[in-house]
Amino acid sequence: MVCGVLIRGFSFFLLPLYTSYLTTVDYGITSLVSSFLITGSFLVAASLYSAIFRFYVDLKHDTVRLSRFYGTIILFVLMMSIIASVVMILGKEIVGHYFFANIDFFPTIFISILSLVFYCQYTIYENILKSQQQAGKYAIITLIFFILTLVLNILFVVHFKLGANGVLLANLITYVVYFFVMLVDLWKSSMIMWCLDKSLLKEALLYSIPIIPHNLSTHITVFLSKLFIGDIGNLGEVGLFAIASQFGGIADIVQGYVNSAYGPWLYEQMSMLNDSVRNNIAKISEILTYVIGFFLLGIALFSHDYIILLLDKGYASSWKYIPLIVSVFLIKILYYFYVEILFYHKKASRLIFVATLSSSLVNVAISYYLIGILGITGSIVADFISMLIRVGIVIAISKRFEDIGLKLSKLIYIIMVVVVFMGIGLYFTYLNYQFTFSYIEFVYRVVVMFTYLGFVLYKFRAEFKQFLNQRKNPLGGKNE
């Protein structure tokens, strides 16, 4: 987990290097291909990545069947991805027009199609290591391949100046090497037997195919949004959208890690639910919303400075979309709180796909219409509307199962407070400093940030004082 965060953080701070050598069009191409690989892999692999987690639990004590299972999954996905690649190469005109915004087939689309074959295997190995909880090995391998990718990117992009094709080639080589490392590791560990076990494959597919829509829903909307933006504008617009989305990715990391701690805590609270516990859940959810809001406010207020000061001038306008993207993640806070209720109740968890699938379909429809009118902003508005729909459905379903004490009106109020501070902080930025940096205006935003922090600390002063007292005197005794 820590390794993943560090690598994501380091990748973020490499943006100035990449944007110095990649035009907005280059960055748009790499972003589009990345979405193609993620979306395509779920279809080609029939979402069998999820089966790796589930079936390991059943087979981990039967090494023979486990090795047959791994061999079957790897071989089946390899065959399917090769067949899919051949079909796409034969239909290159159709593929290029509908899935790559008319990018040149050779070498860009050709490299992307080859990458799909090995990206699927890359993802399989990742999930094998995660399912076996081999955190140390996973961290080491991830770090090594991150460094390999970085070195290859510097070689192809900086030295040979291959642009987007350099990035794609570096990724392809990394995926290929990763594939052979997987084979050697599984072979040495006696965890792979080359076969197509029809019984195991049938069980795995019966499990994985029904969850393809759920796994695809978010990724396919992102991919289609990029295609729509590329169709009405150019791939440079996709590049700007990708840069802005990087900051949204930071917001997602913040929410994800808060939720990873909140979920288990909530399940424990729900197991002994009463009025006192409900009040505690309500209070903690409010505090967490303010805390997450603090980080999202920081992203919205200071992304401007990072982009204007450190990135190439061609990317300067991308910062304007970040506050809008942050607003979507503010709404997503509600989703995280209420969806945990559905995960706790097994019957309710089966209904989550209703929210994800329906909101994704709405997203695609609205994106298709609004992107033609508003461009990148249209895509973000579609995300905002679809997130509202997703949250609304999840809340409605959760109410049918259990009231855990969450105060929806208070949570919405907190989100509105963050939005107000965001508007106050960015008022002069939008008015006078869209493409320039001002120390005075920067200090003003810092003051706004600390004002928000002071507001939160004052509101929860009793809880904060109690927390400090507990830290000073953890055993609960009296100070001498």
Automatic annotation (TrEMBL):
Keywords: Cell membrane, Membrane, Transmembrane, Transmembrane helix. Its main location: membrane. One of its GO terms (cellular component) is plasma membrane. The chain crosses the membrane at residues 12-30, 36-57, 69-91, 97-119, 140-160, 166-184, 287-309, 321-339, 351-370, 376-398, 410-430, 442-460. It comes from Streptococcus suis. It is a multi-pass membrane protein. This is Wzx. It is found in: Cell membrane. It comes from the Bacteria. Signal peptide: none annotated. The keyword Phosphoprotein does not apply. InterPro entries: Poly_Biosynth_Transport.
